[in-house]
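Appendix C reproduces, verbatim, an entry submitted by the partner laboratory led by Prof. M.T., so that reviewers can inspect both the input and the predicted structure.
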Amino acid sequence: MKVFLSWFVRLCVKPVLAPRFSPAAQRRWANLMAKTLMPAFGTRSQRARQAGVEVTVIRPTRAATRRGVLYLHGGGYVVGGPASHGRLAGHLARVAQAEVRLVDYRLAPEHPHPAAIEDVMAVYRQWLAEGMRPADISWVGDSAGGGLGLATAVALRDAGLPLPDALVLMSPWVDLGLGGASVATHAARDPLASAAWLRQCAACYRGAHAARSPLCSPLFAKLNGLPRTLVQVGSEEILLSDAERIVAALRRDGVAVELQQYPGMWHVFQLHVGVLQESDAALVDIRNFICGA
């Protein structure tokens, strides 16, 4: 199954995530491909508007919980939303027995940086205003969503606002300048993401800001005082170096951080939960981390 899925992603997804296709076309195709993912049974979801931002709220059907997860989807800041990532977020709600709020933050190039950070901060502050304790909230993000979660946590810290209990970064994109060695060494090995597409996305998202701006590329931010962090990455992915470098930077700045590397897996392999054993195991690892198990 792993070999089949790897080739399916390489042949059916990667060619469309490319500069020759418009962001609108990439979004439509990503949403269509997401229909091939395993549905998250045992959950219920509803759309809501919170602090002016569209959110999908997903809850397990058979358990009441006070644990919350703010989910930040990937897609290079250009692609993604509830249609593409709702099933993964639903599986996370089921496995972690938590309420998940998937933030449908504004996308580039229509809404460049810092629109996405503003949206995440607004939804998080709304949740706190409803009475949710920061100690009961974790942030989980994949790819660009991982970088966005880290950058928003830096912005929260600098604003003197309460931080969530934990951060989980799946295949995080933390350097919009693509300075990691794996961008070259793993370009052909990763069946999902390409350097050309990432460069297009970076240019769309950062707008007039420099690629090394700390809130665009949190690899270059001061990271002290951030919550405990789990980083998951596949051994075959183009952003492997981003994961390794952000773990080193977090440790340098005194943040408790754990790195989990999954052999043979590609960029955001967790999307295939319910089909791949490695994806199932990764979500259990996330559950154990955010629950303190």
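The domain at 2-290 is CATH 3.40.50.1820 (Rossmann fold). Additional entries are available on request from the coordinating office.
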